[in-house]
Here is the input.
Amino acid sequence: MKKILLISTGGTIASVQTENGLRPGFTAEEILGFVPEVKSYCDIDVLQLCNIDSTNMTPAVWAEIVGAIEKNYDRYDGFVITHGTDTMAYTSAALSYMVQNSRKPIVITGSQKPINIDGTDAKMNLRDSIIYACDDYSMDVVLVFDGNVIAGTRAKKMMSRAYNAFYSVNFPVLAKIMDGRIIRYIPYEPVTTPVHFQRKVSDSICVMKLIPGSRPEMLGYLFENYDCIVIESFGVGGLPEKLVDQFYAEMEKWAEKGKFTVMATQVVNEGSNMEIYQVGQKVKNDFKLLEAYDMTFEATVTKAMWLMAAYPHDYAAIRSHFYDTINHDILCAQ
Here is the structure.
């Protein structure tokens, strides 16, 4: 029988009703008590890492999750992490970079309603996650929700309340789980590289979401205070003429210190391509900007965070490894 470790971090799945709204309250042991049938699938232990609303998720908690997995990696066949849905896509992407080449499955799940409420989706999601974690062909970091198995770097929350909250962006779902059966869509490729853990990521990153009329003076403050700016641009990616002069001045000022920019898009599907329009092509070529292409926004941000910690102020190394494909995160980099 497989041995699984259930790691609880809080979120809606663990929440109880209070006079001030829902707050995490159930322990990992109590959560498991709502799905007693899973004990027939595997030998399962629990670890209460924290009990927070996922709005309060931080890189420090990611490091604790990675540390718990690393410490217990040789003792268990798989790991299931219960988590709040609001930042779950960030966590699943971050763990994909912080724990690489895992032959053992690391499954993240949660729910839109607390596990003790009638009609909740929590029991199905937790049951499916444990089933998936027990399977011989499961590996790496995935998010399991509403019967879908999504690569950790491709998940995005698209619905605020519906049960089918998470979609796989620019990549097919890895599998579906129906009536306890796993139906796989991606061929199994065994992991041959040893598992690698990295607990540290950098938080010296900010996001600048462009709107019509964005003010150029914002750029000076952002470049001065952060090592990486992710620009969430329009369409396939570009920079408004109003920002160009200030952007050039700041890039020339800070590039030698290893600070850099990643161009992403506000459009969820199909990704960026700065080569198409003049507003994108020139600025990309002049400064060799990194570009997200078909990556999710969450993967773009967390990959930059991981790389900045792995290669501090070494833009050449960051640029080289940004386009490495990790857990299906990028397909169409040029």
User: Anything to note?
Assistant: The chain has a mean pLDDT of 92. The two ends are 45 Å apart (CA to CA).
